[in-house]
Design goal:
heterotrimer, A mainly alpha (about 100), B mainly alpha (about 525), C mainly alpha (about 700), B: about 525 residues, mainly alpha
Chain lengths: ~100, ~525, ~700
């Protein structure tokens, strides 16, 4: 039996890596993947807690998050492709139209 | 439900919805079919006017309260309903709205050539909103229509306007919006107050009328309503959006703005601010009367020195609306009936003035007085129409303007002698600025070669001007049909106003209203 | 029909209105396209010069054929028939009505015809109703009678005018408004006519609108009248809230009652009557609002005769007489009315001495004669005022029409310095004008003598009068005689100073113009015979006719002039009469001496006192003073308000608020760096802070 705290630690690490990816990387594709990573970190915590507490709600929430993440990835990637066609770059430092 | 039954039971709703339906149908018209679009829009507005005639036909002169009432729950858990009705106060303003719409549409035939479809859609949405404002007796519903008016008007000025249209449109929007937001806060406060007293949530105006609101709360709520309506009227010194909006708006926009939108403010005072908060209204009377009188004189003086005809007419509106406010705050039958009649009169004559300006603007693309002169010789029919409308604006007896102004001043004279005396000098100034402008535009020799090529009013222009001239003379010579239908409602208003004022004062500790105490002390 | 012909009283104003409609239709549908076609090549066309063309047309002859008017279009004949026709018909109906009224007993001579309820709001009940009583019947007959003659005259005088139909539309409209004014049974309806005649006056003064001075004069007249109307409006408010009605009979009936109950104090009556009198000074061109009338001479001459001499300008006198019940309660107002009347009479008479424009002399003469009427009102002699109003309508209309005939003969020349010796060219005009001049000068036996002398006598003998007022009035009478004979001598006698070209075409006017002159001449002679005072053996029919209107009033109010007069011996009255005639003769003699015997003398006198002459010639610089003291000030203030208050102050605040928001936004904008990573970081930081705060709160608790 692995201690619940280990799952939570894994979850926190995954989430932390995701956060760093979102904040530090310049490629939108990587950033999107990092967002997925954060969501999966949360998923790990949900599933672990659900299993520990014997409550199915944790698993349900994890599925919920997954569907949302799938939708988000679909929309995000579509936007990304559109953006690439328009600007021919996926580097966020070069996409500063919103600055003014 | 058959069509007849629909009209029988839901006449007012049909009146509100018809233009909106028309606007929706317009969307199916192909983009370039301008002629069809114009004709269809004209048809819809005429149909709405004809329907509104049956409101007059079915209107019971003896009934003081709301008539042809329709109610349906809307958001019942919050006490919000769809309630519409008409009484002697709103009847003629409603009629003015439906009457002026087809005329306005007809005036755009050759004036609006770009984005005709969008223009007409906005006009129809505007009509729905305006009719809704005057018929709604649920505060929530009223507020929605009130704000809905802003949107099409904003676009009408901003898209089809003159050179500084963006500035004017934003100024118009923000000015009036700033006031309305305060009103929204006051509406919500009133709503919760009603709940606190009765345990029932309601936005029904008739139920809210029954409340006796503590004096202190009245003063605050009235202040919020006052700002919303004073911006809209516009009262001095909140009037500076008006000249800009008028000058930049297309002719049709100016006509609607002057004829109907300004009346929303004065109507709002009568229906909401004064009726709901009588003590506060009485308390604020000296201030409002002073502002009204200043507006009358100030508007007239500033109008006198304008170089742009449209701006002149805009400032004259400030002056005329000052009369209306003075009449409303006389709180007697003559004053209020005069004020309601003057709202209609101002709609007709100032609307007609803007149409007149539009007619020459279409031909010369300028509105500067100095560009004209001697037109009487070239365009005699135009000159005749202009003359009659000018006389109506001056308030010469025999035209509609006189009856309204006389009743207002008579009513005001009874309660506020000196205000009425000063206001009456506005009658002199009105003659000065209007006749001076008329002289500079129409009389003299033609100095500008371009004016020689002016063509007189064509059949369409005469056709839409004639009804206005007809009403100018009709109301001037025989105003009875108009005044009689106001009697019962205005009488009830005055009586209820007094009773509610006394009740509220009785229930409040003495001396809560500074101004009332001050003025009672003086008497 | 219960009341016989009186039930058709409504026809009296309705007939001119019918004329307006018919002629209006002709003007709009027939004349307008005709004129536009005629002016097909605008400015280059023969009539582009506007008023100038009018003068040209006068220039050659009365036969327009030489001047491009190929032939009289049929519509003009129709107009020439309709316009005088409806007014003539109105006169006949009015006459029949008055005869019917006269057949009633003296105390039953008030007939009211209610047409329809006009304005009704609460206790305010104003019907559109006509009232025929002795006072309004005199007015109605004078208006329709003189009006008819002037309409006929206009057909001839305006025969070269392009906008023939338009002219008669306005003229008929004026008749309608004037008849409403005199026949109304309440103040508000009277006010409709009151402003209506002002409007027509505006339209007719500015008839030749292409002329700047004409449209200026029209505007000036309207605005000056409006200032007066402001007074009438306020007076109506006071009357209504005091008496609860605006109907004459109801108001006057309540006077004694309210007087007793103390509601109607002398102070209140003074305020009401002073406000009414303000209106009268505007309409009847008295000090301080008289300035518009001389300028009004810019209008066509028949208009000057009809509106600015015979009818409209007397409306103020009529209104004061109508309200005599109120005026008699306010001795202070009576004094003001008398003094203003007397001062105006002499003041404008002196201006008349130096004017060289024939119409302006007559205009100042009108102002002066109106002053007489107000003097009469002020001393309580309302009958005398109305009597003079009537005789003045005859002889002053005649004088104006005569001067019009002269102007017509001289191709539009109005300057008396360019006339002279005209009597052989225009014999009828000369003869009739001479009669009118004798009448206005107060030569015994003519109409003006009786009415003017009645006023002088009342000014002396009435309880409101004084020898001082008599003195001013008598002096003014002398000056009147002087300047009127000056006018006649300069125009008709002596050597011709005319332009040779003009002289060649000088001609007597057509019959449509001379016949009205002759009829008016007869009236100027005989019109006074209905009011010959008892002291001269007359029966004074006129006073008896008006007695029911004024005598009950006198009984209720203060002492009446006529009653007070009883205490004066007849010899005094005869003596004063002789004295005033002597003064008038002196004036005539002086005019004869200066303008027939020593014709160089007037210029010498002018040189001797240059300043005095200059001031009088420039009408005491009153117009310039008003321009400087009122008009300039108001315009300056208005521009100041607009540019400083509106544009700078209010919009400063409005735009300032907007600028403030924009400036704030400019600062905050810097947070939007555009780097998505930055946004993400702030998102994270925010989340951390929020979570941290929540944890902290839970730990603390």
């Amino acid at each position: 039996m692995i201690a619940p705290s280990a799952y939570l630690l894994l979850s926190a690490i995954l989430f932390g890596i995701g956060v760093v990816g979102v904040v530090a990387r310049k490629n939108i594709l990587i950033i999107l993947m990092s967002v997925e990573l954060m969501l999966n970190g949360v998923n790990v915590a949900f599933v672990a807690a659900g299993s520990y507490l014997g409550d199915a709600a944790g698993g349900v929430f994890a599925f919920m998050v997954m569907t949302v993440a799938a939708a988000e990835a679909a929309v995000g990637l579509a936007l990304l492709i559109a953006l690439y066609r328009l600007k021919e770059t996926v580097d966020i430092t070069e996409l500063k139209v919103l600055k003014w | 439900m058959t069509g007849v039954a629909l009209l029988d039971q839901h006449l007012l709703s049909v009146l509100i919805a018809l233009p909106l339906v028309g606007a929706a149908l317009l969307l199916f018209f192909p983009q370039g079919a301008n002629d069809a679009i114009r004709k269809f829009t004209l048809l819809v507005t005429i149909a709405d006017f004809l329907l509104s005639l049956s409101v007059v036909a079915r209107f019971d002169v003896a009934t003081a309260g709301m008539q042809l009432v329709e109610r349906a729950p809307w958001i019942p858990q919050y006490g919000i309903s769809y309630i519409v009705g008409v009484d002697g106060i709103s009847l003629w303003i409603l009629m003015l709205t439906t009457f002026i719409m087809p005329i306005t549409i007809a005036s755009t035939w050759s004036a609006v050539t770009k984005n005709v479809k969008e223009f007409m859609v906005f006009m129809l949405v505007l009509e729905t909103a305006m009719v809704g404002v005057f018929l709604a007796t649920d505060l929530f519903l009223f507020y929605i229509f009130w704000e809905l008016v802003l949107i099409p008007m904003y676009f009408l000025i901003g898209v089809w306007g003159g050179e500084r249209r963006i500035y004017a449109a934003i100024k118009f929007f923000l000015y009036t919006f700033a006031g309305s937001v305060l009103m929204l806060v006051a509406i919500i406060a009133l709503y919760f107050h009603h709940y606190a007293v009765t345990g029932v949530y309601t936005m029904d105006l008739m139920k809210l009328y029954e409340l006796t609101i503590p004096v202190k709360l009245q003063l605050w709520l009235f202040a919020a309503f006052f700002l919303a309506f004073a911006f809209k009227v516009p009262m001095f010194p909140f009037h500076t959006w008006l000249p800009d909006a008028h000058v930049e708006a297309p002719t049709a926009g100016s006509v609607i703005l002057a004829a109907v939108l300004l009346k929303m403010g004065t109507y709002g005072f009568l229906r909401f601010a004064m009726a709901l908060f009588p003590v506060a209204a009485a308390d604020w009377t000296p201030l409002i009367a002073v502002l009204a009188v200043i507006g009358i004189i100030y508007g007239a003086l500033v109008a006198m020195v304008q170089k742009d005809v449209k701006k002149l007419v805009a400032y004259s509106s400030v002056s005329h609306l000052g009369f209306v406010m003075l009449g409303l705050f006389a709180f007697n039958l003559q004053g209020i009936e005069g004020a309601i009649l003057q709202m209609v009169n101002h709609g007709i004559s100032t609307g007609a003035l803007f149409l007149i300006v539009g007619i020459i603007y279409e031909r010369r693309h300028t509105r500067l007085i100095s560009e004209f002169g001697g037109l009487a010789k070239v365009v005699p029919v135009f000159c005749l129409c202009f003359m009659i409308v000018t006389l109506s604006s001056i308030g010469v007896p025999g035209t509609n303007g006189f009856v309204g102004e006389f009743l207002i001043l008579l009513g005001a004279f009874k309660v506020q002698k000196w205000y009425a005396v000063v206001a009456a000098t506005g009658v002199i100034f009105a003659a000065v600025y209007m006749l001076w402008m008329f002289q500079r535009v129409m009389y003299g020799k033609i100095t500008n070669e371009e004016n020689l090529r002016l063509t007189d009013m064509n059949g369409r222009e005469v056709a839409y001007m004639l009804p206005l001239l007809l009403f100018i003379l009709w109301i001037g010579v025989y105003p009875q049909p108009f005044l009689r239908r106001m009697d019962a409602s205005v009488n009830a208003f005055v009586t209820r106003f007094e009773a509610k004022k006394q009740a509220a004062l009785a229930g409040s500790p003495a001396g809560e209203t500074m101004l009332v105490r001050y003025f009672d002390g003086k008497k | 029909m219960v009341n016989g012909i009186l039930d058709y009283l409504w026809l009296v104003p309705a007939l001119p209105l019918l004329g307006v409609v018919l002629n209006g239709a002709i003007a709009l549908l027939v004349e307008r396209p005709f004129l536009l076609k005629e002016a097909g090549l605008p400015l280059a066309g023969g009539h582009g010069a506007g008023h100038g063309s009018h003068d040209d047309a006068h220039g050659a002859s009365s036969h327009g054929s030489a001047h491009g008017h190929h032939e009289t279009p049929a519509y003009r004949k129709l107009v020439a028939f309709i316009a005088p026709g409806v007014v003539g018909a109105a006169f006949v109906v009015a006459l029949l009505c008055v005869l019917s009224l006269a057949s009633r007993p003296a105390d039953g001579r008030t007939f009211v015809q209610i047409l329809f309820p006009w304005i009704q709001a609460g206790s305010l009940l104003v019907p559109a109703a006509l009232q025929l009583d002795p006072l309004s019947s005199v007015m109605a007959l004078v208006v329709t009678g003189v009006g008819f003659l002037i309409h006929v005259y206009s057909v001839g005088y305006m025969s070269h005018e392009r906008a023939f139909a338009r002219y008669f539309v306005f003229l008929n409209l004026f008749m309608f408004a004037m008849l409403i004014l005199v026949l109304a049974n309440n103040y508000l309806l009277m006010f409709v006519g009151w402003e209506g005649v002002g409007l027509c006056s505006y339209l007719l003064i500015g008839f030749w609108y292409e002329k700047q001075s004409a449209s200026d004069a029209g505007k000036k007249a309207f605005v000056a009248n409006r200032i007066g109307d402001f007074g009438v409006l306020l007076a109506m408010f006071l009357v209504f809230w005091t008496f609860g009605s605006l109907t004459y009979t109801e108001v006057f009936a309540k006077v004694p009652l309210l007087r007793e109950s103390g509601v109607l104090t002398t102070g209140l009556a003074t305020v009401i009557t002073l406000l009414l009198f303000l209106g009268a000074t505007g309409k009847s061109a008295q000090i301080p609002l008289y300035v518009w009338l001389p300028d009004a001479m810019e209008g066509p001459t028949p208009v000057s005769a009809l509106i600015h001499a015979a009818t409209m300008v007397t409306a103020g006198v009529y209104m004061v007489a109508r309200s005599s019940a109120l005026f008699l309660l306010a001795p202070d107002t009576m004094m003001v009315v008398a003094v203003i009347g007397a001062v105006t009479a002499i003041f404008s008479a002196t201006i008349g001495i130096c004017q060289t424009d024939i119409k302006r002399v007559l205009a100042y003469s009108t102002v002066s004669q109106l002053g007489y009427m107000f003097l009469a009102c002020g001393v309580g002699a309302f009958t005398a005022a109305i009597f003079h109003l009537m005789t003045h309508a005859f002889f002053k209309a005649l004088l104006f029409l005569g001067s019009g005939s002269v102007i017509h003969a001289l191709s539009g020349e109005q300057d008396m310095q360019k006339m002279g010796g005209l009597k052989k060219y225009v014999p009828v005009t000369f003869a009739t004008m001479f009669v009118a001049t004798l009448a206005i000068a107060g030569i015994p036996g003519l109409s003006g003598f009786f009415s003017k002398d009645e006023i002088l006598w009342q000014a002396f003998s009435s309880s409101h009068g004084s020898p001082f007022l008599w003195g001013i009035a008598a002096l003014a009478a002398g000056i009147t005689a002087f300047y009127m004979f000056r006018l006649v001598f300069l125009t008709f006698f002596g050597k011709s100073r005319m332009d040779p070209e003009v002289e060649k075409h000088a001609h007597e006017s057509p019959w449509t113009m001379t016949v009205p002159l002759m009829i008016l001449a007869v009236l100027s002679v005989a019109g006074g015979w209905i009011g010959i005072p008892a002291v001269l053996g007359g029966s004074n029919l006129f006073e008896h006719w008006l007695a029911p209107v004024f005598h009950p009033v006198a009984a209720a109010g203060a002492a009446h002039g006529a009653e007070a007069a009883v205490h004066h011996p007849a010899a005094l009255e005869i003596g004063l009469m002789a004295l005033s005639v002597a003064i008038a003769l002196c004036g005539i003699g002086l005019a004869y001496f200066l303008y027939r015997v020593r014709t160089g003398k007037p210029a010498e006198i002018a040189k001797q006192w240059p300043t005095l002459y200059d001031v009088v010639y420039h009408k005491y610089y009153i117009d310039e003073f008003y321009e400087w003291a009122v008009i300039r000030r108001i315009v300056t203030i208005s521009i100041g308000l607009w540019e400083m208050f509106d544009a700078l102050f209010i919009d400063g605040i409005v735009n300032g608020a907007a600028d403030l928001v924009r400036a704030a936004g400019d600062r905050v904008r810097r947070l939007q760096g555009g780097v998505v990573g930055g946004y993400a970081f702030s998102l994270l930081a925010g989340a951390v802070l929020l979570v941290g705060y929540i944890l902290y709160r839970s730990v603390v608790q």
